[in-house]
Write a structure and sequence with these properties.
Blueprint: H1 12-39, H2 45-72, H3 81-86, H4 103-128, H5 133-157
């Protein structure tokens, strides 16, 4: 899926708009992970809470990397998150943080968000690799973390479903 097909990412101004949208996505992702860390329950809640909080910290770090890079490019950080999110194809215009009371649903929501981020950052990386090498480096570093997050979530949702199913006890 092309998220930013209407943008010419060889153009600095348009690339800054795209990076601002990814900045907004990272803020939402951090909040979603944090909320899941607070809400998670069950026998494995402490381990899952640690992972959710670690991922939230990573997403905040990504937002900081994007903010810094936007400034290095001579761009202006767009702090109007409501507007940025409403016009953001990676969030489907949702300003709300998605959550659930069921651990497996939390993990699936986060897995979907990670896959969307991977797809969006891959699109950006491919578009800028020959024109904006520093942007490519920043996006590639973020992309590596997003792949790691996806791996963590897939492992929890995969063969060890007892981590995800709140109805099972430690028998």
């Amino acid at each position: 899926m092309a998220f930013f097909g209407n943008y010419d990412m060889t153009d600095q101004t348009q690339l800054v708009i795209v990076l601002n949208r990814m900045y907004a996505s990272e803020i939402i992702a951090a909040e979603q992970y944090y909320n899941h860390g607070v809400a998670v329950q069950g026998i494995y809640s402490l381990q899952l809470q640690d992972m959710f909080f670690e991922h939230a910290d990573d997403e905040r770090k990504h937002a900081g990397m994007l903010k810094d890079h936007i400034m290095v490019m001579g761009g202006v950080l767009d702090n109007q998150l409501t507007r940025m999110v409403m016009n953001n194809p990676t969030t489907d215009g949702r300003m709300d943080v998605q959550s659930s009371d069921v651990t497996s649903e939390m993990l699936n929501l986060d897995l979907t968000s990670e896959q969307t981020a991977i797809d969006a950052y891959t699109e950006i990386a491919l578009a800028v690799k020959d024109t904006w090498p520093l942007t490519f480096t920043v996006v590639s570093a973020i992309l590596a973390d997003e792949y790691e997050h996806r791996h963590d979530l897939r492992n929890l949702l995969g063969p060890t479903e007892c981590f995800c199913d709140d109805s099972q006890d430690d028998a």
